[in-house]
Amino acid sequence: MIELTGLTKSYARGAVKAVDNLSLKVERGEIFGFIGPNGAGKTTTIKMITGILLPDAGSIRVGGADMLGEPVKAKRQIGYVPDNHDVFDRLKGIEYLNFIGDVYGVSLSDRRERIEKYLTMFGIADAAGELIRSYSHGMKQKLMLTGALVHRPPLWLLDEPLTGLDPKSALALKDEMRAHCREGNTVFFSTHVLEVAERLCDRIGIISKGKLAAVGTMDSLRSGEKDVTLEKLFFELTENAEDGV
Length: 245
Ligand SMILES: Nc1ncnc2c1ncn2[C@@H]1O[C@H](COP(=O)(O)OP(=O)(O)OP(=O)(O)O)[C@@H](O)[C@H]1O
Ligand SMILES: [Mg+2]
Hints:
Radius of gyration: 18 Å
Distance between the termini: 32 Å
Number of helices: 9
CATH architecture of the largest domain: 3-Layer(aba) Sandwich
Helix content: 25-40%
Bound molecules: adenosine-5'-triphosphate, magnesium ion
CATH topology of the largest domain: Rossmann fold
Order of helices and strands: EEEHEEHEHHHEHEHEEHH
CATH superfamily of the largest domain: P-loop containing nucleotide triphosphate hydrolases
Largest sheet: 6 strands, mixed
CATH class of the largest domain: Alpha Beta
Structural class: alpha/beta
Strand order of the largest sheet: 6-7-8-3-9-10
């Protein structure tokens, strides 16, 4: 579903190498967790997968479509929720969702059914007629999650989706991530909540200083040491990189 090859991106005219020759494949039906310290390059990688940021080098394929060669075909397959919630403040929640439905060509009956389902699931149905400006941080987050699901994307791409969600909404989100994958779709998300990554993901990638430090199932990352937690692995793999080893 996602195929990244030699992905590289620098900022500040090359002074900061945010993502460094990163290659990674994520298959259909997987929940893939992307973890790493602050500044490791998660958001930069995710923004390149969406096509928002152009890589300096390397290629990105989403569902077989090349992001540079066939950007619309690649982007149609993605439902993206960014880590900030700069969403059209002057629209009402329902107007924003209908706008997304129009952009992705979702039929009126499908969108009505899905919008109702997700707004109810996240507990913000009552706020749909209000201006987004009046929403709390968590409500904006839930609105964007709903918007990303309105067009049933084969790839649900989420940058720190659990941040700011109350426990009930976090549970609803995790359940929906599982349900989305069960239907044959893919979920790729970044998080700092290692317990969630450990329990929820089919595979996990650990990024450190722009490089992929490890990738695999929890079992393969443990490499035989039965009781090792993801937290311990995280520190082992990312602290080595901090020391420049
Ligand atoms: N617009 C930008 N201009 C300059 N440098 C940037 C920019 N965006 C990110 N960086 C730098 O690129 C590196 C990777 O940042 P990125 O936001 O991808 O990390 P992250 O893993 O998402 O971190 P976090 O866990 O804090 O969200 C950092 O060194 C960051 O300072
Ligand atoms: Mg980030």
